[in-house]
Design goal:
Helix 2 crosses helix 14, helix 4 packs across helix 12 and helix 8 packs parallel to helix 14. It is built from 15 helices and no strands. By secondary structure, it is mostly helical. The protein is globular, with a radius of gyration of 19 Å.
């Protein structure tokens, strides 16, 4: 595999890290209210990214238009994570899986319509196979009948979150081309910190009792560190790094790997059962990813 194709696959590492959040959640980070957790995650990740960019990149001045583009990414990011965390809190696991399936589909649509990326037959077939494989994997893990139950507002928030994260990914492409994945991820994340911070007092005002269970236990601290250092700083850099070498619509297909990693880690770390759906669906998913990236 040549260097460019290897770096184009960097988002696969990001998806693997995000898949690990399933196991981390079992260790107790849900004891922190969702919007407060999002703020802690992003603030820690932004600090790490800023140190990295200052240490590795020459000082650069951006014009007002570029700052507006970074700020727009920050808004998309804030909307994506806040609705994801609140939507997940209001839904069951089956409904939460919608986030995994729809984000790459939205990325494909936005990449083609907003960036003019080519929609080849191979990419279309590969994305369709990856979607089918992911649905098979998820069917073995979650109860499909539960999609009809639960909170309608929670499902709506997850759908909106999928669209927002796709926009955060796709609309970063021009900035990544002009600067770098590290700079784009850093400044978008740094500008989102005050936006997430503004949501914390709102959350406290609406549900002060949710903060009663917050305690700096080892699992909670470890979960926040995982979310900030790996799921934010490392994963967002890897996600954007792939778009230095591939179309946004191509990068999106790696998002399908997230539930596979989560289920495998659950089996290894938590001794959870794994069904044949993981093997069959995973194989179809792998073929789909191969087709998209060999295009």
């Amino acid at each position: 595999m040549d260097r460019d194709r290897l770096l184009a696959a960097a988002p696969l590492l990001a998806a693997g890290i995000w898949g690990g959040m399933y196991v981390v959640s079992k260790w107790g980070f849900r004891s922190i209210p969702p919007l407060t957790l999002a703020f802690l995650r992003v603030a820690l990740g932004a600090g790490v990214l800023y140190v990295a960019v200052r240490a590795t990149t020459p000082a650069r001045s951006f014009d007002r238009n570029e700052w507006r583009r970074f700020a727009a990414l920050a808004v998309w990011l804030t909307a994506a994570l806040s609705t994801q965390f609140v939507g997940t809190d209001l839904t069951n696991a089956s409904q939460g899986s919608l986030l995994t399936v729809l984000t790459p589909v939205f990325m494909l649509a936005l990449g083609v319509t907003a960036l003019g990326e080519p929609l080849t037959r191979r990419k279309s077939v590969g994305t369709a196979l990856a979607t089918l494989g992911t649905l098979v994997v998820l069917s073995g893990q979650y109860d499909a009948a539960a999609l009809a139950g639960g909170s309608v507002s929670g499902v709506a928030l997850l759908l909106f979150s999928s669209l927002c994260f796709a926009a955060f990914s796709v609309f970063a492409k021009p900035l990544i081309r002009r600067y770098s994945a590290l700079e784009t991820a850093t400044y978008a994340t740094v500008l989102s910190v005050p936006l997430f911070g503004a949501l914390v007092p709102v959350e406290f005002y609406l549900d002060p009792a949710a903060f009663d269970s917050v305690s700096p236990s080892l699992p909670v601290v470890g979960a926040v560190l995982y979310l900030g250092l790996l799921s934010t700083a490392a994963a967002w850099y890897c996600w954007y790094k792939g778009m230095e070498y591939a179309d946004a619509s191509t990068v999106g297909v790696f998002f399908f790997a997230q539930p596979v990693v989560g289920i495998l880690l659950g089996a290894v770390v938590l001794s959870e059962p794994v069904g044949l759906e993981l093997l069959g669906g995973g194989a179809v998913l792998a073929v789909g990813v191969f087709l998209v990236n060999a295009d």
